[in-house]
Amino acid sequence: MAETEAWVAPVALGGDIFLNALSFLMLCRVVISWYPKSDLSSPPFSFVVLPTEWLLRPTRGLVPPAFGVDVSPIVWLAISTFLHEIFLGQQGLLTLKIKYGI
């Protein structure tokens, strides 16, 4: 195991937690979108809506609904999963930096 810079492990841990939480919240938003009559301002829905709406609102302007379904959470779920794999996956950049000091 190679010695690496001190910033890599905390960034990897923080990125892992953030990207996993974002993926989970976006997956919750996908499930919530199946129930259009649910009140998003009341708990437990508000615990999922408040941290994600800042990302979804601009995305809705770029990605229109498909067949009446909001696909913006799916877009962000794909982006967060992709970023997690690129940086923290088995062959991810930060993972390789930690293992081999590359």
Automatic annotation (TrEMBL):
Cellular component, GO, one term: membrane
The name of this protein is YggT family protein
Q: In which organism is this protein found?
A: Triparma strigata
Q: Which Pfam families match?
A: CCB3_YggT
The answer to whether the entry has keyword Membrane is yes
Keywords for the protein's UniProt record, in alphabetical order: Membrane, Transmembrane, Transmembrane helix
Keyword Transmembrane helix in the entry? The reply is yes
Query: Sorted alphabetically, which InterPro entries does this protein's record hold?
Result: CCB3/YggT
Record PANTHER family: PROTEIN COFACTOR ASSEMBLY OF COMPLEX C SUBUNIT B CCB3, CHLOROPLASTIC-RELATED, YLMG HOMOLOG PROTEIN 2, CHLOROPLASTIC
Give TM segment ranges.
6-32
